[in-house]
Amino acid sequence: QVQLVESGGGLVQAGGSLRLSCAASGRTSSSYVMGWFRQAPGKEREFVARIGWSTGYTYYADSVKGRFTISRDAGKNTVYLQMNSLEPVDTAVYYCAARGSTTSQYDYWGQGTQVTVSS
Prior knowledge:
Blueprint: E1 2-7, E2 10-13, E3 18-26, E4 33-39, E5 46-52, E6 58-60, E7 68-73, E8 78-83, E9 92-99, E10 108-109, E11 113-118
Parallel strand pairs: 2-11
Antiparallel strand pairs: 1-3, 3-8, 4-5, 4-9, 5-6, 7-8, 9-10, 9-11
């Protein structure tokens, strides 16, 4: 089992920045892909970004490209999501997730952290 704990959410004004953290523990693997997702009220959960734990390869949703940056610190077993130029549409609960590199299904999820962007 893998445990994921997110932190760093909060309230920020439009144009501001936040950095989310996702601490991983348990049976983690360097072959995992780590992802960030978000779910706004009344909407389906959507993909935000992902990073290969060993490769460092990143991929972003078009809606956040150029504003958000995903990174990882192997020594701390932590994945980050740096969010800049935040907009009210970015308001959502943000979830960290992990999956194996050979599957598209994320098997492990954190509890989520709320991000609220005021206009």
